[in-house]
Amino acid sequence: MKILSLSLLFFLAATVSQARPSLPVPKVIELLTSTNIIEDEAELLEKQQLAINYHNCRSWHLGVETSNIINFRTVPANCKDYVEDYLTSEQYRADSKTVCKEAYFYAKGLALKNDTVNVWIFDLDETLLSNVPFYAQYGYGTEKQDPNAFNKWLEAGEAPVLPETLHLYQNIQELGIEPVLITERYQELEEVTLKNLEAAGFTYWRQILFKPTGSNTKISNFKSKERKKLVRSGHTIIGNIGDQWADLAKDSPGRRTFKLPNPLYYKN
Fold this sequence. Notes:
This protein is of the alpha/beta class and about 270 residues long. The chain is built from 10 helices and 5 strands. Helix 9 (about 190-200) links the parallel strand 2 (about 180-185) and strand 3. Helix 5 (about 90-110) runs parallel beside helix 8 (about 165-175). The radius of gyration is 26 Å and the shape is globular.
């Protein structure tokens, strides 16, 4: 009887197991590879050093801002509308405002020393002045640009202000911190750049350091070298803000760095 009851239990358990609907097996997340698009297209894009399309442009943007996606020559073609919508929306300003607000509250909470020159490092392009009107002519970063065309844009001196950073620029001076600008623009553009800055509302700076005309030095190396010079000459870099990780990398970056959003391009 006990043997029969045990057999019956096994039979019932097997019957229930067969009747129960099988649960779906979790799938591995599909990785984006060149097989997701036509192979010929992938090969062409690779030869032209253009970015391969991404299914989710918001995720691509996150990868750019966190420096997980690097060395891209262009914005993915299918992300043109996303980048345009982002840069022309309130979200771009809100993101920039958040960064600048945190930078200000950080600086405000410091007890500054009087035996040094307290400075804040500012990048220029896509930090103080915007080149979005130029990149809009080239698919918001999805198309390659002629370097000569960009130089002509800079020579026109019509880059608009980025208001959130202007507020930070003004506020840190009220705290006794002096702005120092380090830009990858060549020295030959100094005169027109200064006029553009003044027209945009930047009327005072302790120093503006330009890249020597014709120099092929990487941005990160150039800026790091200039910051080290400042530190050696008795300056204390309280903070550093820019739109590229190259603005904030390597030696003497400052006590704290702040990264502004920029999905348009990558520089090192």
